């Protein structure tokens, strides 16, 4: 198994957590430095033409891409411990919560969006930061509205075991607090669950600042 990753990538962070939960150690981890533009080099474009992280190679089949799809693959091929509920309604709720972060909010703050804001839209740094903070926090607020009002919320986003929802939400929190300096005082349920998640080795070990190449802190 070969895993294409970068310390700062929140999408790669999600997959690292899933790998850790499943106790899967890739044979090779390939760093694709998003800040240096490695994703636009021909070598990586052959891996993922969309030039996004993460990507996973497992055996002789097609390369796997998109963090949610990779996590589903890992859950199906390594079912223990599960990271999706067994019941259809629970699975739908968990996927919905996960996609608020992974599909609605995070795509608006990725490096290619920030580069477009700067190079094409000619936004200065304060304007870019306002954009990043706004959409990151909007995602957390949407998740919070579900978590605080729905009886399915427990110790974690859905009941008392970790699911996709916790994985994706945690990445969103790291973006908000570590990258974009958002005020997260308005999402207390999110932060309570995030704190529970980060007590788990699979989460804490996957933290961006604990990866190779991350800046010292």
Provide a descriptive summary of the structure in words.
By secondary structure, the protein is mainly α. The protein has two domains: about 1-80, 3-Layer(aba) Sandwich (Glutaredoxin), CATH 3.40.30.10; about 90-205, Glutathione S-transferase Yfyf (Class Pi), Chain A, domain 2 (Up-down Bundle). The chain is built from nine helices and four strands; from the N terminus they run E-H-E-H-E-E-H-H-H-H-H-H-H. Strands 2-1-3-4 form a four-stranded mixed beta sheet, with helices on one face. A hairpin with a 6-residue loop joins strand 3 and strand 4. The longest helix has 25 residues, at about 125-150. It is globular. The two termini are about 30 Å apart. The relative contact order is 0.15.
Distance between the termini: 30 Å
Task: Work out the helix count.
Answer: 9
Main sheet specs: 4 strands, mixed
Low-confidence stretches: none
Corresponding CATH architecture of the largest domain: Up-down Bundle
Structural class: mainly alpha
Order of helices and strands: EHEHEEHHHHHHH
Strand proportion, as a percent range, falls in 5-15%
> What's the level 1 CATH class of the largest domain?
Mainly Alpha
